[in-house]
Amino acid sequence: MTLRADDITVAYRKRQVLHGISVRAGAGAVTAICGPNGSGKSTLLKAICGELPYGGQVTLDGDDVRQMPAWTLAARRGVLPQATTLAFPFTAIEVVRIGLREGVNGADAHLPLHALERVGLAHKANNYFQELSGGEQQRVQLARVLAQVWEPLDAAGQPRWLMMDEPVASLDVAQQQTVMQSARSFAQGGGGVLVVMHDLNLTALYADQMVIMAEGKVVADGTPEDVMTEATLSRAYGYPVRVNQAPAASPFVLPYLPA
Question: Looking at the DSSP assignment, which residues form a beta bridge with residue 18?
C-alpha cells in the first residue's frame, strides 16, 4: 500500500515552484520531507493533499485522489496544516470533535478525550482554544486529526494516512517526542505517515524514509543513513555540515564554522 506522487509540478504566478517531483511513501512507515526554507516542502505536501492545483498525479493506494469524493478522502487521510486559525470560541474538546465523521469514528463519544490524552492535553479539554499556548493549540489540532483517522487500518485492512506539516515547530523537547511517538505508533499500526520536518536530528530518530528537497527538486531519497551524508546535506542547505554517529544511536548533524 503506497502513496505515490508522480511528476508533480506547481507554479505560482507563472513561477515554477516544484519541478517534476516524484515521491513514494509506504504504509507502515514514517516518511519525512526535509530541506531548507523555500525548498518547496510545504508546497509539495499541499499538492499531495489537494490543497492547491498541481500537474502530475497523486494516488493513494492506487486511487487517483482527484477522482475521490471529499468524504471518502477525509475517511482515508487526515491532514495537519502548519497553522490553523479559529474565529469562534471552541473548547479544546470541541475542536477535536470536528475531526469525527459519523460512520467512521463518530459513534465513539469517548474518542475526543482519548485523542487529547494521546497528545498530553486531557486536562485542558474544557479550556477555550484561544486561551491555550501556541504549542498547546498545535497539539489540539493534532488530536483532531488523530480522531479523524484514529485506527491506522480501516475495517477492510486498508491503511489510513496521517499527513503533517511541521507538527513540532512550536513545541518543546518533551512535546516534540510526544508528537513524533504518536506518528511512530500510527505507522507501527499499519498506517502511513508523511510529515514535513525541519529538525534533521529528530527526523533521524523517527523517520524510516527521508526525502531531501532543494529549490523545488528532490536532492536525495532513501533511509536516514542513506541520505544524511555531509555532501548531500551541505549541497541541499548551502552550508557545510558534519554528520556524526553516536554509539548505538541514529546519525546526528551539527553545522560547523569552516576554517
Answer: 10
Contacts of residue 185, Cβ cutoff 8 Å, sequence gap at least 6 = none
Q: How many CB atoms lie within 10 A of CB 14?
A: 5
Residue 235 lies in a domain: yes
With cell 494516512, the residue in question is 161
Per-residue pLDDT of the chain (259 residues), as tens digits, is 799 999 999 998 888 999 999 999 999 999 999 999 999 999 999 999 989 999 999 999 889 999 999 888 888 999 999 887 787 889 999 999 987 865 556 557 789 999 999 999 999 999 999 999 988 999 999 999 999 999 999 989 999 999 999 999 888 988 999 999 999 999 999 999 999 999 999 999 999 999 999 999 999 999 999 999 999 999 999 999 888 877 666 777 776 666 5
Find out whether 80 and 142 touch, Cβ atoms under 8 Å. Answer: yes
> What is the Cα–Cα distance from 4 to 92, expressed in whole angstroms?
34
In a domain, 106, yes or no: no
- Domain of residue 183, residue span: 2-82+156-255
Check which CATH number belongs to the domain holding 39 and give it.
Answer: 3.40.50.300
Cell of 113: 478525550
Q: Count up the domains in the chain and report the number.
A: 1
Alpha carbons 204 and 253: distance in angstroms, whole number: 9
**Are the C-beta atoms of 243 and 228 separated by less than 8 Å?**
yes
This prediction has a pTM of 0.91
Residue pair 179/80 in contact (Cβ under 8 Å)? The answer is no
- Please tell me the distance from the alpha carbon of residue 215 to that of residue 16, in angstroms, as a whole number: 10
Contacts with 249 (C-beta within 8 Å, 6 or more apart), sequence order: none
